[in-house]
Amino acid sequence: MPEKFLSEKHKELHNELHREHYLTCEKYYIFELLTVAGGMMGLYTYSLRGQVFCNAQTGNIVKMTAAIGYGNFAEAMYYFIPFTAYVLGTIISEILPEKVSHTLFIRWETALVGTEILVLFLIGFIPFSWPDQVVQVMINFLCAMQFNTFRQAEGIPMATLFVTNHVRQIGISIARIIKHHDQEAEARAKMLKHVKLILAFMFGGIIVTALSSYLKEHTIWLAIIPLSACFCVMLQSDLVYERTMLDFKAGGH
Questions:
Q1: Of 61, 176, 228, 235, which sits 20 to 30 A from 9 (CA to CA)?
Q2: How far apart are CA 126 and CA 148, in angstroms?
Q3: Over 168-237, what HEC string results?
Q4: What are the helix (H) ranges across 70-131?
Q5: Which residues touch 234 (CB under 8 Å, ≥6 apart)?
């Protein structure tokens, strides 16, 4: 229900919630788990499914641009496919949230993670003999929705699918420590959160890379483990602890 239709008491509760607490889908440990899964999905598509970056599109745009520059337009179209899937995933994640929460009585964030688990499970059955683009499009679509949905961890803008911004924030925090000694404790705490997400991403990628020669196309099932942990915690919150808060938007939206 749009905020303008909420009762004044409901609005006060909403403000109180975000002043002192955060929704489960905004908790930092949820972002850690999602980042582990993000690293796994990224290394899976790059290592086993055609060397395409599913997490973000800068790498694909760079490769597409280079192909155009060399006059290799067929190769350029190869990298245009995941780009298109990413755009579509973003569009869908902007349209569906309110409809999902009103229809399924769970938050969009929870429904999305459940969908990711199902799709990744199905991807694990797709043999390497199939065109890589099939898997690329599916995972790019999921990554776009995850990136656009999970935006802030406990009030701090964070991404769960790539680390560029985390690297930038580490640099900013170090500069703040050097320039403003009175802000050192806060800057260190914030920097540590970004460092931990980079390590979470690397951990997921390392696990997938190390086990890919044994698990083959089934390697993507490893990403289901952290996603399942997220889904169980978030579903319980939707059905029990936060069942009256389904219309509350997570930070960044």
A1: 235
A2: 26
A3: HHHHHHHHHHHHCHHHHHHHHHHHHHHHHHHHHHHHHHHHHHHHHHHHHHHHHHHHHHHHHHHHHHHHHH
A4: 73-95, 97-104, 108-123
A5: 24, 25, 30, 107, 109, 110, 113
pLDDT in tens, 23-52: 999 999 999 999 999 999 999 999 999 888
Supply the range of the domain harboring residue 96.
24-241
- Specify the number of domains making up the chain: 1
Please state, in angstroms and rounded to a whole number, the distance separating the CA atoms of residues 133 and 166. 29
Q: Which two tokens stand for residue 68?
A: 């155009």
Mean pLDDT along residues 111-135: 96
Mean pLDDT (the chain) is 90
From the CB of residue 119, how many other CB atoms can be counted at a distance below 10 Å?
15
Rounded distance, CA 48 to CA 132, Å? 9
The pLDDT value recorded for residue 217 is 95
The DSSP element (H or E) to which 156 belongs, if any, is strand 156-157
Helix axes of 73-95 and 58-69: crossing angle, nearest 10 degrees? 150
> Which pLDDT score is estimated for 83?
87
Does residue 46 belong to any structural domain of this protein? yes
Contact between 109 and 238 (Cβ < 8 Å)? no
pLDDT at 149: 95
Cβ-in-10-Å burial (0-12, 13-18, 19+) of 163 comes to buried
